[in-house]
Specification:
The chain is of the alpha/beta class. Helix content is 37%, strand content 27%. The chain contains three helices and six strands; from the N terminus they run H-E-E-H-E-E-H-E-E. A six-stranded mixed sheet has the order 1-2-3-4-5-6, with helices on one face. Helix 3 links the parallel strand 4 and strand 5. It is globular and about 35 Å long. The N and C termini lie far apart (61 Å).
């Protein structure tokens, strides 16, 4: 009887632990880039963004993580920076570069509207360039 209780406990523990893991959505995966998307209807847009990233040589030496999320009618492209990000030290020129990237990506995701958001490692927003 004791073995059954122990087995049941570990099965229950496994179910609880596996269900508590972070879910960032569905994922397109490559060696250089992972793009998560929280809504399955955005899979084609995620593919277009992945191709855009590759075609425009935005892949770096470190693996990059992006998430395509939405807020009402706006697509949010959340980017986890590969280096430490401090919003207070974010220069006008850096913001202008991201705004240019956002404007260029807008053509890829049209007719949807997209905003670039710098995010923590769990995709919680740190900085939205449009705010």
């Amino acid at each position: 009887m004791t073995k059954i209780k122990i087995y049941s406990f570990f099965c229950l523990l496994f179910i609880v632990v596996s269900s508590c893991g972070a879910n960032y959505g569905n994922k397109l995966e490559s060696e250089e880039l992972d793009i998560y998307f929280t809504d399955i209807k955005h899979e084609e847009i995620a593919k277009k963004i992945a191709l855009y990233w590759k075609d425009n040589k935005l892949l770096g030496s470190q693996k990059q993580y992006l998430q395509l999320d939405h807020k009402k009618e706006v697509l949010l492209l959340k980017i986890i920076p590969t280096e430490k990000f401090e919003p207070g030290k974010f220069s006008f020129d850096e913001r202008a570069l991201l705004k240019g990237l956002q404007d260029s990506l807008q053509k890829v995701v049209a007719p949807n509207y997209i905003e670039i958001v710098i995010a923590k490692s769990n995709f919680d927003p740190i900085y939205n360039i449009n705010d």
